[in-house]
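Task card 7
Instruction: Convert sequence to structure tokens.
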Amino acid sequence: MSQPNPFKPVVLCLSGHDPSGGAGLQADIEALIAQGCHAAPTVTALTVQDTVDVSDFRVLDRDWVLAQANKVISDMPISAVKLGMLGSVEMVDTVLELMQRLPDTPLVCDPVLRAGGGGSLGKDDVGFAIRERLFPAAAIATPNLPEARILAELPEGSADECAAKLLPHIRHLLITGGHGDEAEIHNRLYCADGSRHDFTCPRLPGSYHGSGCTLASTLAGRLALGEELVSAVRSALDYTWRTLRDAEQPGHGQYVPRRLPLDFCS
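Output:
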């Protein structure tokens, strides 16, 4: 009888379900498979959305979320945790309770507050709870600039201004670009020790659904594999850019990152 496959690091993902398959848990699963990790998906919310925008959502009862995650934590060694859509302050409390069982496990927080089309994915107090209570428990957060502005309560703030407001709450902050009209995308990693790392990449044509989920879950996977944080950020950004370069348009809306090769199942 053959022996089981070598151990793959397990990443616990707490995210919403996107029925279009472009973002949310499906993005997490595909990106983590591509890194050689095993995704353990815990559903936090159900959404009504397509590749353009979200029209409705429902946050799951916290007991259901706790039951899902605790069952996995009791069965598998968790090497990293990735957060996506939480949708409520109560879900922030749920994550903090779960992290008490996972001390020293890197937590990657993708503060999903709005869909790509602009639809809200939580009330205003969710952003405040994420900043004040969840950020201190995280290794890194990965907001795009519009999300960073919401979290920092700076509606017109630059990335540097938002980072100055947010860094007292978190060790590492990756603010992603791409929401202006610049020819190059500027992604900025700010660290609580005062250091900063800039990463640029060419702007690609079109708009994309699920790029933030892809980046955050890939980063969690690289950390689960033991990669140093700055290097893991670079690896995650490079991989995400490639998935956008090769993106597909399955419907009438935005492009969806191609996170797995075409011959993956062949």
